[in-house]
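Honest question from a wet-lab person: if I give you the sequences of every part of a complex, can you actually get the arrangement of the whole thing, not just the pieces? Trying it with mine:
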Amino acid sequence: MNPNIGETAAGSELHKVFAYIAANKDHFINRLVDYLRHPSISAQNIGIREVSDILVSMLSRLGLEARTILTSGHPIVMARWEHAPEAPTVLLYGHYDVQPAEPLEEWISPPFEPTIREGRIYARGAGDSKGQHFAQILAMESYLAVHGRLPCNVLLVLEGEEEIGSPSLEAFVRAHRGLLKADLVVTADGSMHPSGRPTVSHGCRGIATFELRARIANRDVHSGNFGGVVPNPIWILVHLLASMKNAAGEITIEGFHDGVVPASDVERAAAVRLPLDADQLKRELGIVSLDAPAERSMADRLMFNPTLTINGLHGGYGGPGAKTVIPHEALAKCDARLVGRQSSEDVLSRIEAHVKKHAPEVEFVRLESTPPSKTPLDSPFSDIVRRAVKTAQGVEPLICPAGGGTLPDYVFTRVLGLPSFGTPYANADERNHAPNENIRIDCFLNGIRTGAALLNGLGRCTGVERSLHSTA
Amino acid sequence: MNPNIGETAAGSELHKVFAYIAANKDHFINRLVDYLRHPSISAQNIGIREVSDILVSMLSRLGLEARTILTSGHPIVMARWEHAPEAPTVLLYGHYDVQPAEPLEEWISPPFEPTIREGRIYARGAGDSKGQHFAQILAMESYLAVHGRLPCNVLLVLEGEEEIGSPSLEAFVRAHRGLLKADLVVTADGSMHPSGRPTVSHGCRGIATFELRARIANRDVHSGNFGGVVPNPIWILVHLLASMKNAAGEITIEGFHDGVVPASDVERAAAVRLPLDADQLKRELGIVSLDAPAERSMADRLMFNPTLTINGLHGGYGGPGAKTVIPHEALAKCDARLVGRQSSEDVLSRIEAHVKKHAPEVEFVRLESTPPSKTPLDSPFSDIVRRAVKTAQGVEPLICPAGGGTLPDYVFTRVLGLPSFGTPYANADERNHAPNENIRIDCFLNGIRTGAALLNGLGRCTGVERSLHSTA
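Yes, you can. This is the full assembly:
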């Protein structure tokens, strides 16, 4: 397909929507302010029902078929518009729950009394992510207002548990595959690059967290009277950990790297273009060198390689001066970040087997895990998403093969098998999870435009392009 | 020399002293109770002056030339009786300071209101070690009362800072070599074997304590967004520590073992006779195996080999669940126990050089250190001390080549070049450093008898025997 076919007609249709958004700017800002007044704090079970009901009413008024679907936790809001049989279906994912607002005393204006200062709306959830999915909704509303229809099919999925780790999302997706037939997933969450450039992300690393617990004796003993006799749980953890990753930075657990996929040429080319500045990072963090191995590029470090991190290690005396003791227990807490097709469950099993082999006296405790998610950069939808962002925001977005952190994106890519893209709308200084969370009004309005441009771009996508994807 | 020469005459002389001790038993117990009423807590600077003055008065009344000698810390009490020109001179070392008494609420009777219950005197300092050097003083008093003279020369050195690490003792010894001319040192401190058998110790391991501080970044960072990029101070300590001692238990620091002397046949033979029961220890401490290396005997573990112990390691998160963080700093606290002719200062320099070579970003901080002390088992005085203990207590003492813990004994063996022996009088359950410290009255009385037998035994020692020692 030639992506320029029909561009003029589509452009004209989209410009009318952009004009409508511009004309309704103040109204949309007021509507977001109203929406942000309602707390929906998943961790504290505050306002979840109210906000999910507000969303269902709002989406129904737009003409979408909307409802809440119960889970074992907080309900998921689902809405669908499926009257474009020739066009693809986009699943727009977001979350309507927000972080707790504490510490309240650090907010300049109260977290649930949205306040506009210097071009930003301050409120809990403004950036993360009520302001972002509300922009998606207003994009649909605007398109419907101008054209009486959407150019493609839409499934909107807004969960109420993202801020507590999405414990029900995978089960929901597995139980409702039939309701979730789509061609791609787009998520507006997270923040833009600090330079202000928009990004299109194609996945994220997974994670596997675990504890190593060594308990040797029933009490601490004197290092003189028992030194050389009683085993030391810290030494045991030191030698176990040193057997898991060597000083050169190589993870040495058998089978750990199964599923690690070397970066493709396309991914490498995209990574090279990302503004990852090691020197600036060193200055900001006050570090003199990067982590071992020394010769890796920043993109290789963050996107294409797994990690094994000791998050904490505690045992024995930590106070001032000397205390000549052999401690009787020690604890290490670790996470592994995973890439490509690594399985977080398999990685945990490999680590457990390693511990059993090298230090059978150490207890291995599995904590949370999430598989990585990866959408190929050459997915045909990738370019549609990129062009939508550029059309709406006037800037070429950064193309990110994978984020370093972890999102529950695998439920779409690995469970449903769909390509999945992240298009964050919030400013980098949105202060998500912190007091004085905010979204810049221009980012919010650009988000509505981006949502409209995405729908428009997908509406121009032919069946040929879709089949290209489905055979990819 | 035939050690039996003069035994009958000496035995007769000693039995008169034993009879005097038996006749004055209640009086001696009351005198100890009076002495224990006076706190002398070095760490809190309570009662030091009063108790050192009490000792000088008491020793002067016995006819000794007694005085306090100022140090940069608490004064040292010194007393001498030197009217036996043909006999050797024994330096009796002890300490008149005691541990703080806290937690006070755990004492059944107040720490400075000595109370007799079930054959024990309960008070702070009863065992550690006022009851022990008071027994030495009463031994002299008894001998002087019966015979009007001592059978050998005595230098009594009682320091006031043992419970705070003897910070002034080495400088005192170096500054007053002329006042400290002696043939041997005997210390009554510590406790007897749990079986109730007395011991004669011939030294102790030294110690070198240090910290390893790794500070990498100016703040903790997210393990996803920075994992693979920002170095982890815990990993750095893990790899550094693993380079210092391997999983087989071998310390791998270059030069660390300089001065380690293999145990002699005499020492091995003595060690084999010690009741060191690995199985009982395992049961008591709930451990399933001894520390690596696996094939070492208990005596080798405790007496003849150095150790490297991690006393504590702390960095990053230690709370419940997972926290996906790369910590920015971590701290390890360590001690090495030293043997033979190892130098604690040299060992610290070797460790420092190792750290500089393997992890120059880690800060090495020297804490306290004390060299090991070693008196040969075949020192001619060894047998005199052994026979004195056996004569006084009626039990063959355990001959211990070296204790696992550390005492400031090196000031006598390494600075003054004297043979030095430990003859602890206190019961193994004396609860030193803890609430309800006590000494068994029979142990206290046996201590007086042992002190008398020691003086008596040394009085029978000829010049030939002394010269044997001085050329050893």
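Two things worth pointing out. Chain B touches chain A through 76 residues (CB under 8 Å). Residues 7-204+373-470 of chain B form a domain with the Aminopeptidase fold (CATH 3.40.630.10).
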